[in-house]
Design brief:
about 270 residues; alpha+beta; 4-stranded mixed sheet; 5 helices; about 25% helix
Amino acid sequence: MRLSELGELGLLAELEGRGLARGIENDAAQLDGGLVVTQDALVEGVHFRLDWTSWRELGYRAAAVNLSDLAASGATPEGLLVSLGLPGETRLDDVLELYAGLNEPGVPVLGGDTTVSEQVYLSVTALGRSERVPGRGGARPGDGPLGAAGAELRAGRHARPPLRLEEGRRLARTAHAVIDVSDGIARDAAHIAERSGCRLLVELERLPLAPGATVEDLGFGEDYELLAATPDPLDFTVIGRCEEGAGAELTLRGKPVELGGWEHFRSRAC
């Protein structure tokens, strides 16, 4: 079977089922002492195009998408490790701008690796600490709120992801499950439902949309807001509830809605 048939989630299930990886269902890995580690990679032509985004914005984005996973884990970030692949003709000024963007969120770059590559490849590992990581698999029937700060759609294709670290720490104190919305609201709600063994109902009219965004835009993903199942809504936006059953259902004013989402190996590159 080819990966284009299996998809990213199918690949992860195969690895886990064969004992080749463990604990890969959450946004980050939790180690002893409260250490939380996550890693994401950005590949030119798949996640970004340099005619659409600047080097500084690329660096910021690479840091932010990893910090979003730490936010979903309720973690306070401590540092970044950066692995960078670049063509030999890349200008020094461009690389300096990239690292300026990486440093912009205020989390130090502690090390990493560089190598020559035919296209730009940027992999960031983020390190943090958390007293409690909710994960994706703890949602329970009766949990009402699903939204954290909401699922605002980014205004532009390569707009800056939001940093929800403080919101993530607040949610981690009480939430049964948290995920960052990177693959689209439908797919990420389904992740929580599958891991938790319950049914998620999402009312799309409750989602705060970015200016100019429509409900259909929510299927693209890359919002990097937080989606949480928690018995206490605190002061976050409530967009649905958890029930007995399985899967995730999205409705718009009471009518079912089908939305797509991003999945590597199946989804088209940018």
